[in-house]
What we know:
The complex is a heterodimer. In chain A, 41% of the residues lie in helices and 24% in strands. Chain A is built from 11 helices and 10 strands. Chain A has helices at 2-6, 48-56, 78-84, 101-108, 117-122, 125-144, 160-173, 190-205, 217-223, 241-245, 248-255; strands spanning 8-19, 22-33, 37-41, 63-68, 71-72, 86-88, 178-182, 209-214, 226-231, 234-239. Helices cover 65% and strands 6% of the residues of chain B. In chain B, helix 2 runs parallel beside helix 13 and helix 9 (222-232) packs across helix 11 (244-270). In chain B, the strands form 3 sheets. In chain B, strands 1-2 form a two-stranded antiparallel sheet. Chain B has a two-stranded antiparallel ribbon with strand order 3-6. Chain A binds chain B through residues 56, 58, 77-79, 82-83, 87-88, 90, 94-100, 102-103, 106-108, 110-113, 115, 117, 119-123, 127, 130-132, 134-136, 139, 151-154, 156-157, 170-171, 173-174, and chain B through 214, 217-218, 221-226, 228-229, 232-233, 235-244, 250, 377, 380-381, 388-394, 396-400.
Amino acid sequence: MTVEAAAPILRVDHVTKRFGGLVAVDDVTFDVKKGEIFALIGPNGAGKTTLFNGITGIFPPTTGRVIFQDREITGAKPHQVATLGIARTFQNIRLFEYMSALDNVRLGQHCRMSAKLWDSLFKTPLERREERRVTDRAIELLKFVGIERYTHTYARNLPYGSQRRLEIARALATNPALLLLDEPAAGFTPQEKVELMGLVHKIVDNGVTVFLIEHDMKVVMGVSRRIVVLDHGEKIAEGTPEQVRNDQRVIEAYLGKQH
Amino acid sequence: MLRQFWERGPRRDPNTIAYVVLLVAAIFFPILVNVITGGNSSSIMTVAADAGVYVLLAIGLNVVVGFAGLLDLGYAAFFAIGAYTYAFLASDHMRVTPLGEPIHVSFWIVLVIAMFVAASFGVILGAPTLRLRGDYLAIVTLGFGEIVPRVFRNAAGWTSGVNGISALDIPSLPLWLQGPWSGDPFAVVPDFKIISSIGYYAIMVILVIICVILVRNLQRSRLGRAWMAVREDEVAAAAMGVNTVAVKLLAFSIGAAFSGFAGTYYAGKLSLVSPENFGFSVSITILVMVVLGGMGNIPGVITGALLVYYVIFVLLQQLPEFAVNFVTSIGLGGLVKSSGDYPGIAEFISRLKFLVFGLILVIVMLVRPQGLLPSRQREQELQKGVKEDTVIEDVNAETT
Lengths: 259, 400
């Protein structure tokens, strides 16, 4: 267990992202280990989401490397990254609003399906079997995140909290080894946050590594064993919740310098 | 029991009714016309078969615009490519080109070839341009739509330029059973030439049915979902593992294939192709059919195509005649003659034709912006914030 837990699933190696003259992420290095809940925290504008976009290929890093399961994925296209086994959610929910919850999750399985154009055109037995399998799996996932009663509702008509859960279900549908959650508890009540963290634990128990961004330090301290702190694009601390909480630079970043 | 059927079938999927109505209408239309005209239905059936060409085109453009959300303003280009493919492969024309030898391939085989030729051009145009978004793509397709007819006009050595290519082969069936229904004795005829307008109508209905089945299968497949996702949010679709460029390219080339298909039929029926038949106005007409009928919904675009075709090619053409009859019957016969600047009622109304068409479009779009028979998504998009709690029944979910 300890040996396996120590193996890195994702390595962010001296990654820098510049937008023109602005350095959004500055030479950041860390490892995410297999089977853990890893957290990235930092104040607004620290570069957290930019780093996620760099990992998932939406905005590839300017310099540095991203290595996933011993394979360099720097500069890979988003759909390639997803196919390799990294799924994500978005800070500002990006569901397919005018598709049902079920279809959102079925779409998530797109890259795990093998029906070709021919199969789709002529509804071959392979296509039918696959559609049934995908539908069953989608319903299973909706139950897993606890929103099965919205199966046939348009994503946009779901309550806010259920939309966040649906996004997680859709990401899990891609059958990822690593799940990136971008502020999954944003806008949640304390009660909802507790429930969400329960869900995150359930996901990890199913063998998926979770890497999450969180703004709220309290939430993170409860679930993560290891935390990295970004501020102004730079990594300012890494360690256990206790270490991070007592780190002088982290306190300064969040509360400002003492005068 | 009837109620149960209603709840399960039509109410869940209103399209079922639309499909049944359309199919019944397609079957009974020739009979009805025959009765009304007293056995002299030929001219009306020709028009109906021509309308079918636009139905095919609208179904194809719907894949591009309605499903994948790509605005294609040069769709007629693929139509032209399909028609010229037939002209090249099934006439004596090749004798007068640098090739020197006529080619005669069967109509049915060219149908398939033209699909692939048009699809290939779709890929050639799409591959470099589908990275562009929205408006840019529209402009590129607009350019393509202008270039293709121009190439056919100017490459006169191969295409006879503005004169076009005429005397194309008449489509024929390899085997046909003739009998009393056509006024002949029973016999099996080989190489039966299709010349009757009802024959073309029948072929068109069969082609449309085939296309509807195929497109419906696509819409409800993995690919159809991916198109919808790309249309809604490209970034999210890509992050979920959808190769957005490949998926858009498929939509584009499948749309083109349908257009090529329709082009071959059109050329075979008319026995003539000319670069004048594939201008910008054709592309726009098809787009109007798709939008007015209900983007993304197959029965909707079929209805839209039929209605718009009827308005442009039948109703508006007859409008001057109606006007003459009308003013004569109410005793204002003096209006029929021209005098001074006034050209006479027929010409006067004829000049207003497209004003009337424009007005019809504006009114329809104001009253029913979602189209005549919209898809559920379109309907929802336009009702944003009105119904907050709509629960849809999912027609795809067989297991639920």
